[in-house]
Amino acid sequence: MTSAPQDPLAAGVARANAFFALSRCFDLPTRWPADLGTLVRDALGPLGTPASRLADEIERRGSLDALAAAHARLFVGPFRVDAPPWASAYLEPDGQLMGTASAYARTAYARAGLDTTTRTEAPDHVAFELEFMYYLAFREAETGDAIWFERQARFWREHLGRWLPRLAALMRDGSPRAAPYAALADVVSAFSPRLDAAYDCDTGVPR
User: Fold this and answer.
1) Is the pTM of the predicted complex or chain greater than 0.85?
2) Is residue 71 part of a domain?
3) Can you spell out the DSSP letters for 108-129?
């Protein structure tokens, strides 16, 4: 009997690359690397159409001013934030920033040996948390030590997996047509169930 093929995004190095690509997509458009479309296509290609569409939209990104405006409307404000990029907005009862959700993220970083005191972003910003998952998956692939996988699974199960799909839903509802953020939301929604499976958990968050 032939066993079912392993999910190509299940291995540590593949997960690391996927987390890295996603973290860059959530960064300011002015800081996007020139090869971000290729990075998305290579790292997230196993997701199929959502990844291809995101890569295509990034590569024909158009006006940087339009992208920056779309990013600000979704994630920054000042007058309106359609898709708050902080865990606190979803996990705190009143959406208060810099509360227990932020403290959870900061503690997880410190336990993994990371010094985040020089970072200006809130510790529970989506790009920061995805970068952390990249670091954990990279360390898993580099060392072969199961503790790095266990740290990923715990952070996803207890924290990031509980709010990232909800962020994607708001992005899909609020993203302007001129920007690739609706495509990014579809990628997040396609990737999240694979992480539930990889980490053997069910976060119970609607996709």
Assistant:
1) yes
2) yes
3) HHHHTT---TT--S-TTBHHHH
